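Minutes, structural biology subgroup

Action item carried over from last meeting: produce the structure token record for Transposase IS1595 (Barnesiella viscericola DSM 18177). EB confirmed the sequence was re-checked against the source entry. Recorded below for completeness.
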Amino acid sequence: MNIGKFNSLYDLLESFPTEESCIKYLEQQRWANGIPVSPYDPTSKVYNRGDGMYRCKNTGKNFNVRIGTLFEGSKVPLRKWFVAIYEITSRKKGISSIELSKRISVTYKTAWFMNHRIRECFGIILEEKLDGEVELDETFVGGKNKNRHCSKRVKNSQGRSFKDKVPVMGMLQRGGKLVCKVVRDTSYKSLTVPILKTVKRTATLFSDEWCGYKTISKLYEHYIVDHGHGQYVDEDAYTNNIEGFWSILKRGLTGIYNHTSKKHLQRYVNEFCFRYNTRDFDDVSRFDWLLCNSNYRITFQRLIK
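Output recorded by EB:
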């Protein structure tokens, strides 16, 4: 099944006019050459029942292409799911749940759930650890104190205080991938672990003068720019790239989503990291990547508990 470029939502709907066309395309993306693989036993022979379902010989269980994916258990047609995936992956800043609900004619609750199920797949774009020249920085996500009503303002929340904000740690390989993690605080204990898990020891690190990076200076080649004294570039030592990403993240969160809770913030951050990491992809490639990596499923109860 050959699909052309999705230059618009109209093109997408033209490419997938029926539910059957969506199912066939999803099978081709998830299964090599469209040959069904049992989610219960990948080594088993599979029989085509002829009614859109397949049977796993070894387990005797029936299945379809939705099983084991973000589409499993959803009563929403695949055609609407495809529109939702296209909208969230092709837009530079994403799409709010209330707008998505209007675009595909579902309730706000359903659109919110669909958005989070899609975001759950964004966190697995990284295939290997970062290496080379890697910029490190942290930011704080949350509304500005001066914009709050006087009764809701938080005292002593300037600078690196996060009484009213959530800290996010960023690691960006120059010319490569970006990884961001929501952290408990910006102490050296909270920052060191994500760096060790994400960045190879052979990498060269660049950061500001924050004391939270004192441990990694003993483990990596590490250069510092002293922002506190007005130094932002010292030859190859700078953090301009990761700081530019923070601007994109905050404008998107404020302009599109308005409010994001700490509980779900990591998924929103993963969404923006996905766009950065696929910046050289076209819309079809992003769309296909999501379908190929759709085997990450989160339940509604887990989202709300």
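Discussion: Strands lie at 46-48, 54-56, 62-63, 133-141, 166-173, 178-182, 204-207, 221-224.
Next step: EB to file the record with the rest of the batch.
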